[in-house]
Design brief:
The chain is α/β, with parallel strands linked by helices and about 300 residues long. Helices cover about 45% and strands about 15% of the residues.
C-alpha cells in the first residue's frame, strides 16, 4: 500500500475544544515537538474571534514564532476574508475553510446556510489565490448531525464538489460527532469519489463511539491516503454533547504500523508530545496506544 500522509490537528481542532486556554508559547512548543516527530502538515491555529474561540487567541503570535522548516506546512483555519487577511499578515501559507453537510449544523455553528457559507468561501479562495496561499476544505457532519440526525452521502458529496470546484486542493471529510460506522464510511467515500478524485479526499474521524480506527481502515481500503488526527486524542465538539476528540495520532500510527503502511512519523516521539500537552492541560492522554505503551514502560 502506498504511503499515508497525516494532518496533525491537535494544536487547533484539539485545543480549541479543551477547557483550559494555553499560551501561544506552550502551543509553539507542542507544534515543534510534533514536527520533530516527523509530522509535516500541522494545524497551528485559527484566525477567528477570541470572543467565540478564546483557546485560539494569539494565533498570530504562534505563526510568527514558528520557524520555516523545509517540508513542514503550518496551517490555519479561517472563517472568512478577515480571517484570511490576518493569516496572511502572520505569514501563514496554507489555510482551511469549513462548511457543513447539515443545514442545522451550519446555522448553529456559523450562523448561515450552506449555500451562504460557500458563497463566502468563493471570495476567500479568490483572495488566497492572489496571495499564493493554498486552501484546504473541511466538510463537517458527514455521517450525522447533532441537531438533525443522519446525513446522506449525496449531501456530503455536493458540498465537497463545491469546495473542490472553487479551488480547495483537498477535502477533509469530518465525522464531527463520531457516529460513523465502516459501512457508512464506505458509502460516504463511494459517493464523494464520484465528484472529487479520491486522491483529493481526506478522513477526519472522531472517536465518540470507538469507531474511528475501524472507519479509517475502511477508508484506507477505499483508497483514501490522507487522515487528520490529534495528539493524545485532544478535542471534541462544543455543539455535540458527548462527542470526544479526533482519533488519537498515536492510535492511528499503531494501525498504520500494523498494516505496514509508510508514514514517516516516530510513534514514541508523538507519545512524548502527548505527555507534554497532557501535563499542561492537567489530564491524561485519551490515546489507548499511548496508555498501553506508557504502562509497559512503568512496569519495566
Amino acid at each position: 500500500m502506498e504511503a499515508v500522509r497525516l494532518v496533525e490537528v491537535g494544536a487547533r481542532d484539539g485545543l480549541q475544544n479543551e477547557r483550559l486556554t494555553l499560551s501561544p508559547q506552550i502551543r509553539v512548543q507542542l507544534l515543534q515537538r510534533l514536527a520533530d516527530a516527523g509530522l509535516q502538515t500541522l494545524e497551528a491555529g485559527a484566525f477567528v474571534s477570541p470572543r467565540w474561540v478564546p483557546q485560539m487567541a494569539g494565533s498570530d503570535e504562534v505563526f510568527k514564532a514558528l520557524p520555516v522548516r523545509p517540508g513542514v506546512a503550518w496551517t490555519a483555519l479561517v472563517p472568512n476574508l478577515r480571517g484570511l487577511e490576518a493569516a496572511i499578515a502572520a505569514g501563514c501559507r496554507e489555510v482551511a475553510v469549513f462548511a457543513a453537510a447539515s443545514e442545522a449544523f451550519s446555522q448553529r455553528n456559523i450562523n448561515c446556510s450552506i449555500d451562504q457559507s460557500l458563497r463566502q468561501y468563493q471570495q476567500v479562495l479568490v483572495r488566497a489565490r492572489e496571495a499564493g496561499v493554498s486552501v484546504r476544505g473541511y466538510v463537517s457532519c458527514v455521517m450525522g448531525c447533532p441537531f438533525s440526525g443522519p446525513v446522506k452521502p449525496q449531501a456530503v458529496a455536493a458540498v465537497s464538489a463545491s469546495l473542490f470546484g472553487m479551488g480547495c486542493y483537498e477535502i477533509s471529510l469530518g465525522d464531527t460527532i463520531g457516529a460513523g460506522t465502516p459501512a457508512a464510511t464506505r458509502a460516504l467515500i463511494q459517493a464523494c469519489r464520484q465528484v472529487v478524485p479520491v486522491s483529493a479526499l481526506a478522513g477526519h474521524f472522531h472517536d465518540t463511539y470507538g469507531m474511528a480506527i475501524a472507519n479509517i481502515h475502511t477508508a484506507l481500503e477505499a483508497g483514501v491516503r490522507v487522515f487528520d488526527s490529534s495528539v493524545g486524542g485532544l478535542g471534541g465538539c462544543p455543539y455535540s454533547p458527548g462527542a470526544t476528540g479526533n482519533v488519537a495520532t498515536e492510535d492511528l500510527l499503531y494501525l498504520l504500523d500494523g498494516l505496514g503502511v509508510r508514514h514517516g512519523v516516530d510513534l514514541d516521539a508523538v507519545i512524548e508530545a502527548g505527555e507534554f500537552i497532557g501535563a499542561q492541560l492537567g489530564r491524561p492522554t485519551a490515546s489507548r496506544v499511548a496508555r498501553a505503551l506508557l504502562a509497559q514502560c512503568t512496569m519495566a
